[in-house]
Here is the input.
Amino acid sequence: MMIRVKFLNLVGLLSFTALTISGCSSNVDSAQNTHKSLSSYEQMLRESEAQKNVWDSSLADNSRFKLNINPNAEERRLAASCARTVTRNLKRSEIFVHFLLTELKNNDMPIELVAIPLIESGMNPHVRANNGAHGAWQYIRATGRSVGLNRSKNYDEVYDFVKSTKASIKYLKRMYQDLGNWELVAAAYNQGEYGVKKACEAARSRGIDIKSADDIRLSRGARNYVKRFRAYADILKHPEKYNVSLPRIKNRPAFTRVNLDDNVNSLSEVAHLSGARIETLKKLNAGYLSDKIDNHHGLLITVEHADNLQKAGATVKTSEQNASNYKYNLRTHNES
Here is the structure.
C-alpha cells in the first residue's frame, strides 16, 4: 500500500512538473508574441509619425511655443512684409529643419528661437556678412572660438550647421541662465550679453520690474532685432494670419553622418556614387573649405543617398554618434 501511495505521488509530481513546464513555455511564447506585436506597433507608429508634416508633430505643437508673444501693430506689419521670405527660407533650408526643431525640444527651449538663424542668415550656412560674421548663426571669428567653433586648414566649424547649432544651443542656454528671459537673450545675441546685462542693472536701479525687452534701454540695432524676432516668431506660430503656409517637411531625420573608406575623398565623388546633388552635399558639409573630405570630420549625407553609396560599392561606416543625435522613440510618438 505504501509503495502504491508513493508511486501515485511520484506520478502526480511528474504531472505537475510537466504542466508547469508547459505553462512556462506558453508564457514565453506569449511574451515573445507580445514583444513581436509591440515591435510591429512601434514600427507602425514610427512610419506614421515620419509621414507627418513636421509642423503637425510634437516637435512643433502649441506647447513648444513658450513666449506668449503679442506683437504690436508695427511688429505685425513687419511680419506681414517678411512672411513670404520666412517661408521661402524655411523651404530652401528644409534639410535642417527637423534637426533644429529636435535640438530645441531635446533642450526644452522654445520653438520661437528658430527665428534667430532665420533672421541672421535665412538658415543658410554659407552666408558671409560684411561685418565679418559667418555661417547660419553669423558668428564673428572671436565669438565662434569662444563657443568652441574652430577652424583648420580645410574645415571651418562656423559653417557646419550641425556643430554651430549645437554650440548655439549651449550659448543661448547659458545666456538664459544669466538673463532669465528669452527676449533678452535674443537682444543679447545681437547687442552682446555684457551690454544687455548693464541695461538690466540700470533698469533695476530705477525700480523697473523687467518682464520683456521693452523694459530696458537697448541699442537701436538690438531694438530692431527684437522687433524682428517677435515678428518672425508670430509667423512661425500663426502663418495663417499672414496668408502663408509653412513648407511641408517630413517629420524624420533628413541626413546622417557617415565615414567613408580612403578611396572616396571628395564631395564630387560622393555625388557621383550616391546620386546626391552636389549643391545639397555642399550645404550639408559647408564646413569643408574645398571639395576634399576626410574621415576626421566625416560626411553628412541625406539618408536615402547613404544607402546608394553602399550599393555603389563604397565602404560606408555610419558614425556611432549620429550627426543629429536624434532618434525616434515610442514616448515621442505618443506625445504627438
Q: What stands out?
A: Confidence is low (pLDDT under 50) at residues 1-11, 16-21, 320-336. Residues 54-242 form a domain with the Lysozyme fold (CATH 1.10.530.10). The beta strands are 255-260, 299-302, 316-318.
